[in-house]
Amino acid sequence: MALSTAERDALLAESLVAALAVTAEGGRGPLNVPVWYAYHPGADFMITTGGGSRKARLIASAGRFTLLVDRTAPTYRYVTAEGPVTSTAATTDEELAEISARYMPADKVPAYMEQLRSSEDDMVTIRMRPEHWLSADLGSV
After folding, report:
1. Is CATH 2.70.40.10 what the domain over 5-140 is classified as, yes or no?
2. Model pTM?
3. What value does the mean pLDDT take over residues 7-17?
4. Which interval of the chain is the signal sequence (predicted)?
């Protein structure tokens, strides 16, 4: 059974890792990788990645991507959101802190941010406006 908007937003508010899928080049299947994300109801999804990564290049080429968020307990639920990229820009400390704080203890965030900032690949924030949604709670069937 499809999730209501409130149920969908509640699932997306959990600290669950998303699977990102984007069209790949050269007749290969889509790239499908785990990503951390941030989402606020009614707004764009936000992910961060290395600006020179294959993921960033494929997203720039395709101009859109899909995110899948799921959980297995107490029942299996999932949400997919697919849509166009609305912006790609250098990641700010505020964006990096927001996403990091969803997935790690607060006292670990500063060191994690410093580690990312010292890497050779500059981080970019990519925003996607969800146009198409799929969702279900398979335990309610």
Report:
1. no
2. 0.94
3. 98
4. none
Q: Mention every residue, 6+ apart, whose C-beta is less than 8 A from residue 44.
A: 86, 87, 127, 128, 129, 130
Longest Cα–Cα distance of the chain, Å, equals 49
End-to-end Cα distance, the chain: 6
Are residues 68 and 19 in contact, defined by beta-carbon separation less than 8 angstroms? Answer: yes
Q: How many CA atoms lie within 13 A of 34 on its CB side?
A: 5
> Residue 141: pLDDT above 70?
no
Where do the domains of the chain lie? 5-140
Q: Which among 135, 140, 138, 141 has a CA at the least distance from the CA of 11?
A: 135
| Per-residue pLDDT tens digits for 36-78 | 999 999 999 999 999 999 999 999 999 999 999 999 999 999 9
The tokens describing 111, both together, are 């060191």
Inter-CA distances, 86 with 4, 11, 43, Å: 25, 23, 11
d(CA 87, CA 92): 13
